[in-house]
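Notes to self, Rhamnulokinase family protein:
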Amino acid sequence: MSRRFAAVDLGASSGRVMLADLSDGLSLTEAHRFPNGPVRVAGRLYWDILGLYREILAGLRAAGPVSSIGVDSWAVDYGLLDESGALLGNPVHYRDDRTRGVAERVAGAVGAERLYDVSGLQVLPFNTIYQLLADRLDGAATMLLVPDLIGYWLTGEAGAEVTNASTTGLLDVRTRSWATSLIEELGLPAGIFPPLRQPGEALGGLRRDVAAEIGWSAPVRAVGSHDTASAVAAVPAAGPAFAYISCGTWSLAGVELPGPVLTPESRAANFTNEAGIDGTVRYLRNVMGLWLLQECLRAWPGSDLGELLAAAAGEKPFAAVVNPDEPVFLPPGDMPARIADECRRTGQLPPSSPAAYVRCVLESLALGHRLAVRQAMELSGREAEVIHLVGGGSRNEVLCQFTADACGLPVVAGPAEATALGNVLVQARAAGLVAGLEEMRSLVAYSQPLRRYEPSGAAGAWDEAAARVF
Ligand code: ADP
Ligand code: LRH
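result:
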């Protein structure tokens, strides 16, 4: 058996097919990367799901034969299949506005306390539960979350991997089974929710036509198919005293726990209890993340990220900061204009150059990280001595240093491709090559380049900035 594994990892800003080799330690190479993003058609925001599928096949062809394949992606979004297994309509992007007001309506009908007690999930307007209630479900026989949909197209086998199912709002946080009574109470058709599968479980071999197209065949395995579950599985932590920030399009900031926290305080702070690998709980909150920066760059055609980050480091500290989680920042659109409005609304002068905007975004994001990490520790009682910052944001040296300074904790940055690593390590474990979560993490720690940032001691200035924003 070869010791090569392929990770199909779909992020909101790019997808990639990564190739891991565990013959001697753990090496990871990129077989194929392709852009991803929302597509607006007739006023609705979609993913280009077929384009993504085509790129996945191109990536697998480029990767060459492997022992197995795992698929992960962003959470909450789905495709609906009819009785024959055909896709009913194009999957809608979670930033689409069709769910406006739905969360409030559901809370009014069912009770916010009850929802939290059942699912343990933070309220985000785009949780699957709200999307399903905003959609037309007639003719739908099966609901497949995005990685499960890709897995279905690759193998013909339908199912719902549990870490991602935990982001729907319809999974029981205690039993990790579908919350059937809530589903029925909401009037959703219980039959569309497929059987749950666990990370490591085999889906089946590639369909013959798929194997013919990519030129080889291999089984597909369920992994932590929620990208954040895979990222947290690959955090290079040595013990339990760590916090993490999975920092890409979103920053997912929190701690790992053995069980959920379902207290009124936790609900009030909008903390989530998402399912992690091996029964762990990802206790975290979404922070708006590098979306803020991505959307600024889109507004400045021809700008260069590296140059802007270098210039931002030289800008005046704390000239303007915003709460990164203001709902106004969620949809696509002119981000600099929205940041400027938010500055004016809070009595601050808007930034006056792209570099000053970037400085504002990075400081604001570090403040969001600080609040989420501190609240995660307070609400769970879990102490952290270090913050592991993984994902593409770990390449952003300014953000890593700001995060260490704002939080007053050392930040260990990397790996940037933690999600792909978590994906392949669950496959390698299923193949008997790795023992458990601890060994997976130490393999990452020893094999991947990491960088440590110490807090610089400017705590007072960050306290003052935080008081301005929250
Ligand atoms: P996602 O999986 O959500 O698409 P990623 O984890 O791939 O996100 O992270 C993408 C982000 O990482 C980019 O928006 C960018 O801000 C940041 N990033 C990527 N490469 C670099 C780099 N070389 N320097 C600084 N930031 C980077
Ligand atoms: C990050 C992520 C996050 C979800 C969001 C929809 O990619 O999966 O964990 O909240 O996308």
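- Residues 11-12, 74-76, 94, 226-228, 249-250, 252, 286 surround 6-deoxy-beta-L-fructofuranose (ligand 2) (CB under 6 Å).
- The two ends are 54 Å apart (CA to CA).
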